[in-house]
Amino acid sequence: MLLAMSQAATATPKETRPTPISRVEKRRRAQADTRPRVTLSFYRYVRIVDPVAFQERLQAAWSEFGCMGRIYVASEGINAQMNVPKVHFEAFDTWTQSQPELAGVPYKIAVEEGDEVSFYKLAIKVKDKIVADGLDDDSFDVTDTGEYLTAAEINQYFDNPDAVIVDMRNSYESEVGHFEGAITPNVETFRDELMITPQTLKIHKNKKIALYCTGGIRCEKASAWLKHNGYAHVKHLKGGIIDYAHQVKAQGLENKFRGKNFVFDSRLGERVGTDIISTCHLCRVNKSDTHYHCLNQICSTFYIGCDNCIKRRAGYCSRRCQLVNKLPAKQKKRMARFYNLRIRPLRKFKKMRLG
Ligand SMILES: [Zn+2]
Ligand SMILES: [Zn+2]
């Protein structure tokens, strides 16, 4: 859309240029669109010759269908998290499956829709990679991925002393939900996880290793990376936690997932296990698995809060942030400038990444 807008901007004389729609207005319009939607995600590693042309093709067709979401396109493939109005789902599906790059691609449909709309705009971006993994793809065989595991197959890994299950997601994701007994590395990015995993798993080198992530995309790269690092028995959960939840339900299997599956849209999570496994970051007492961004924009810390603390702190992560926000605008601006220049570079921010 950005691309289309910038092209329009160069082609249209200044005085007839349409007024750009603000973010708030976009959100308001999206919220006003109350049509029932299907939230889905999919990815495919496929050679895309001209990512910009592909992006434009998707943008034109999917906006017609009223789709919203966050989609990354690169010469290595596509990674899409989006929603589609139910009334247009069939048309969307027919069109999408008719594209040579996407023919036969399976969708992972969200486990629950929730009250919150999953996305408020359609952003299709051309990137170098569809997942930020920090790896040099020419340095190893990225196509030598591990075999897939179904839900029934990964269930056999639990209680097997010769098997380990590894969570390939970031710590803020595994904190609210993970597989029973899984190794959950304390990392903030997938890049960091790939850096440390070969070392972390060293003591399990001869064991059967099962990797999992949200929808399966991260494990494609991670399994090839571990194999390259000498791990012979690496497999990964096909379709990730999202598909695991569907398979468990459809086949009446035992659900080994505890808590919530963190997702990268406005819902921030969907319930897979019935239990709440994490604790509020503010009081450290009450159980909660709901994430919030601190309302103080200078801070915007991503944290887990319980109902009590959210009420008590009015949505701020601390008393300090609550007070800072009451300061006059001029003073806040000065603080923001100081913060951006001096504090932010020192601070490691938790980044939300697609996966
Ligand atoms: Zn609390
Ligand atoms: Zn804060």
Which short descriptors sum up this protein?
Alpha-Beta Plaits; 18% strand; binds zinc ion; globular; 5-stranded mixed β-sheet; 32% helix; disordered N terminus; Oxidized Rhodanese, domain 1; alpha/beta
In short:
The chain is α/β, with parallel strands linked by helices.
Your description of this structure?
With 355 residues, the protein is α/β, with parallel strands linked by helices. It has three domains: 22-126, 2-Layer Sandwich (Alpha-Beta Plaits), CATH 3.30.70.100; 141-260, Oxidized Rhodanese, domain 1 (3-Layer(aba) Sandwich), CATH 3.40.250; 291-346, no CATH class. It is 32% helix and 18% strand. It is built from twelve helices and 14 strands. The strands form four sheets. The protein has a five-stranded mixed sheet with strand order 4-1-3-2-5, with helices on one face. It has a four-stranded parallel sheet with strand order 6-10-9-7. Helix 7 runs parallel beside helix 8 (217-228). The longest helix has 15 residues, at 329-343. The radius of gyration is 22 Å and the shape is globular. The model is unreliable at 1-14 and 349-355 (pLDDT under 50). Bound molecules: zinc ion (2 copies). One zinc ion is lined by residues 294, 296, 299, 301, 316-318, 321.
**What is the first-to-last residue Cα distance?**
22 Å
Instruction: Please describe the biggest sheet, giving its number of strands, its sense, and whether it closes into a barrel.
Output: 5 strands, mixed
Morphology call: globular
Low-confidence stretches: 1-14, 349-355
Shape-level CATH architecture of the largest domain: 3-Layer(aba) Sandwich
Radius of gyration: 22 Å
SSE ordering: HHEHEEHEEEHEHEHEHEHEEEEHHH
Number of strands: 14
- CATH topology name of the largest domain: Oxidized Rhodanese, domain 1
Highest CATH level, the class of the largest domain: Alpha Beta
Helix content class: 25-40%
Strand order of the largest sheet: 4-1-3-2-5
Small molecules bound in the structure, each named once: zinc ion
Count of alpha/pi helices: 12
